[in-house]
Structures are given as C-alpha cells and as structure tokens.
Design goal:
Length: 124
C-alpha cells in the first residue's frame, strides 16, 4: 500500500517529467531543415547562410558536420504556432567551422533529405 508521502513523490516526479518534456519540445521539438536560398558567403572559418524561414519561427540554428573532404551545414528551424501565414521571411545565420573551409566541399544538409532533395537548387 502506498503511503501519502510516496504518492506525493510520484506526483512531483510526474510533474517534473512533464515540465522537462515540454521544455525539450519548446526548444527542439518539430525541428525541420531549411535549404539555403543563395550561395553561402565564406570568410575563412565563418560561413553565412541565407534561407527562407517562417514569420512564426521561434528558434533556428546550424548543425555542422566536418570532415577532411567536406562540410555539411544544415539549417534547422522550429516554429511553434497553430496558425501562421505562408509568407516567407529571409533570414541569415552564421556557422563557425573548426578550421577554414579551404578546398573542402560545402554541402547543404537539407538537400540530403526529402522533401528538399528533389528541389532543382539541390541538384547541383
């Protein structure tokens, strides 16, 4: 038989789990990739990316994967809105690489997955 103290601890733990899950969803949940709209601007190890985001976008970042041969940059966006217009907003982000880009291939990570992979801009 559970005591009143045990039930209180279980309830507190349940509330903590719900709060943590809500916080995780707010910051990372529903993240989608967004392809570059134009060629990135590269200045040594800093790469400036332009993409079309939503007016309801709440968070955006760049995932960076580096190897000796290539750099994959993936713009990730999160939008938390039940109703938002289809009007796109031009946005920019910067990614700082561990080393200058140099001769390495620069890849738009959104183009590696659907629905963007079949987009004409990703074909090149």
């Amino acid at each position: 038989m559970m005591t009143r103290m045990t039930l209180s601890r279980v309830a507190a733990l349940a509330v903590a789990v719900v709060v943590a899950a809500g916080a995780w969803w707010w910051f990372y949940g529903g993240a989608e990739s967004a392809p570059f709209d134009k060629a990135p601007s590269v200045d040594g190890s800093v790469v400036r990316l332009t993409y079309t985001g939503s007016e309801c976008e709440t968070r955006a970042w760049v995932d960076v994967e580096e190897s000796a041969a290539r750099v994959v940059l993936t713009v990730r966006t999160v939008e938390h809105s039940l109703s938002c217009s289809d009007v796109g907003v031009v946005r920019t982000l910067e990614a700082t690489l561990d080393e200058p880009l140099g001769e390495r291939e620069l890849v738009d990570g959104a183009c590696l997955n659907e629905p963007w992979a079949s987009r004409p801009a990703c074909a090149s």
